[in-house]
Amino acid sequence: MNNSLFLALVLALVALVTVQAQSGGTFNEPPGQRRQQTYRVLEYEDGTINQRFKGTLRYYCTFRGKWSEERHPRDFPKSPSFSAPIMIAHSNGYRMWTGTEAATLGVEAIAEEGFNTVMTREFNNAGFETLMMVQGDRMFNTTESQHLPPINVTYEHPFLSMMTKFTPSPDWFGGFSDMRIISYETETYFNRIVVQSYVWDAGTDAGQSYTALDRDMDPQEPVARISKNNIPHRKPFLSPDESYIPVPIEVECVLRVGEGSVIPGIPFDERQIRPPLYVPRPDDDFVEGMEPHNWWQKYGEGECRGRFCNSADSRNLMVTMFAMMLTTAVSWFLW
């Protein structure tokens, strides 16, 4: 083999290994650490703040509504809204809700009525297991966005959970549960994270459409994700071609460290750190007649699997491919 060609192949292999090493792996938590992951991680950025950091740490989160008649046309209600989203920072010993167990009374009250009173009582009764609870505003336009109040986290309380009701609905809600904002790989807080919500059934009401009459489940069933395979007979939430369930909610959070300024020499202003209200995504395109660009669909039923959960991985792979093509072209030229 020509020496130039051999050298080019070696360089391409080194580039591949180097880029993959920089990508940081997947977000998915180690098996057995927590219960079923209840959300899709779209993007995340590893940070440098050690998990034992003793200063003030808080996340500034933006809630983005993506539930619309264009995206979810089947049986779409005439006057949709999101109940006031509620987010809790908590320890390993607290669960707001999970995708495998029966809902608490607080979860049932939000999922069926949109009221946070019972959940607030559960938060207070949890004692040390919970750190902070914040509440947003009810949203009568389900395609708008809002900034949620900042929420503190600590090493003892590194989990965030959130939920909001789809109104009207029997007991359907969106959100995420037990999202650990300390990386298992780097043992540092994430600088930034973007998560997307599935659609969940609280298992407390047997209604099959958005406006179904109240029909309490007896016995109550575990909270379950609504997917294409178990969709109610009126097919709510499905895409226009009924091939999948488009993302109805997106939440992006950015970390602020300490109480000082974010930009040296300039007094702190939330606008310096707040995630933007609107971020266009590839899967938004189809509402204007284009094909859905759900690049995660190839990984199965709308779930993000493998390294492409991290957008940096796809960029790194593209860089690697470009490097390999370039080195191969140069080698052939020299050969």
From TrEMBL:
GO cellular component: extracellular matrix
Signal peptide (residue range): 1-21
Transmembrane segments: none
Pfam families for this protein: Spond_N (PF06468)
GO-annotated biological processes: cell adhesion
Keyword tags: Signal
Family matches, as InterPro entries: Spondin/Thrombospondin_T1, Spondin_N, Spondin_N_sf
Residue span(s) of domain Spondin: 47-235
Gene3D superfamilies cross-referenced by the UniProt entry: F-spondin domain
Name listed for the protein in its UniProt record: Spondin domain-containing protein
Taxonomic source organism: Cylindrotheca closterium
